[in-house]
Amino acid sequence: MGLELYLDLLSASCRAVYIFVKKNSIPFDFQFVDLLKGHHHSKEYIEINPLKKLPSLKDGRFILSESVAILFYLCRKYSTPSHWYPPDLHTRARVDEFMAWQHTAIQLPMSRILWIKMLIPRITGEEVPAEKTEQMLTEVRTNMQLFEEKFLQDKMFITGDHISLADLVALVEMMQPMGGNYNVFLNSSRLAEWRMRVELAIGSGLFWEAHDRLMKLAEWDCSTLDPMVKEKICELLQKFR
Amino acid sequence: MGLELYLDLLSQPCRAVYIFAKKNGIPFELRPVELLKGQHHSEAFAQVNPLKKVPALKDGDFTLAESVAILLYLSRKYEVPDHWYPQDLQARARVDEYLAWQHTTLRSSCTRAMWQKMMSPVFLGEQVPAETLVSTLAELDRCLQLLEDKFLKDQDFLAGPHISVADLVAITELMHPVSAGCQIFKSRPKLAAWRQRVEAEVGKDLFQEAHAVVLQAKDLPPADTSIKEKLKPSVQVLLR
Questions:
Q1: Is A209 a domain residue?
Q2: Is residue A239 domain-resident?
Q3: Threshold 0.90, pTM exceeds
Q4: Which residue in A199, B23, B166, B227 has its CB near the most CB atoms, within 10 A?
Q5: Distance (Å) from the C-alpha of residue A96 to the closest C-alpha of chain B?
Q6: In this structure, are A96 and A197 located in the same domain?
């Protein structure tokens, strides 16, 4: 058995890994773990990853979780072109800096927008209080500004002239609210241009293929939602009250 | 000007960077940034780190934020012993995995536990609702269980048989709730044994030196009104 990747492309972290392996023609087996059906909580999957999160990588007997760790592993093992994770001390540090910052500054808030604007109302039938929504959106706007001013600045990509893992991870996460029809690129032409550059560097075909499930989320029949997952979501709503 | 490290040892990631630099004999100028005086919000500090957080590094014209990035930068630049961030593909992946996982889990729950249980009542004079604290401590417990079961397992250190930056990042986190009086090692002999090993590797003196500030935080005098006003916005999120 070769390289296996446990993925659901609804998750931004999974999209980053998927796009990376496809772009670099790394052969792998796509193991679909359906988040909407709660399959990440299944006994089989817990054996792969007791953290019950996606993505996971299985390479022979070696199992690895956390998309950032997986991306670094793949870069090294498959000797991908150096622009993805440049060897220069300072440039590499910039990628590391973004990869560390994004967990709490980008991924979490972007994911929350999708929950607040679409998933929670769709599943529970209730809206999240406007005050909380506004708080969330303010946080996102602030962090997008920081991203633009500190990480991107006037460069083509985060590290300079070439796409790196940082751009890939940033973009797939910023796409997450699109599943709920919320576009975070509207307020800045500089960010919108960067978004287009990253999409083109990846290849539009691959980019939109990876985002298909997310973009179709609005069509999803949530009556098929796993009851356990639905319960967790209702609990989540309580936190927003 | 040589390497400058902008630190407040009250902060967990600052302690990890401090211990790492000292342990590896990396020469640096310590630039104190007092969080409890709101110094991280100053214009001057924003020049070093526009993200307004500690730790931050300045190496000539090069500035760098994020403790994980700083630790890796120092590892590479000063060519520290391999075990800190091993060359071996799978061993390195284990370290990367821990460093990625901890941001939204252990880090978050350790910071909240310390602020909700101690800093808020002692320093800000505000009690946090009982259910909030209970929920935070339950989350901390969950993270500690994962730390033991998924990362440490039956190994001596988090990424294998040798200490790495993952252990420094983890141990400095755990000392946060410890400073607030949480007895996290009491019912966890495996974690307690790992802590002893990490302390021994780091060196007792350096470990104690790095933790002096946080362990004395419970004796801080209450903040005056102007400080409370200054800190409130950034601290609010930790009290939920």
A1: yes
A2: no
A3: yes
A4: B166
A5: 5
A6: yes
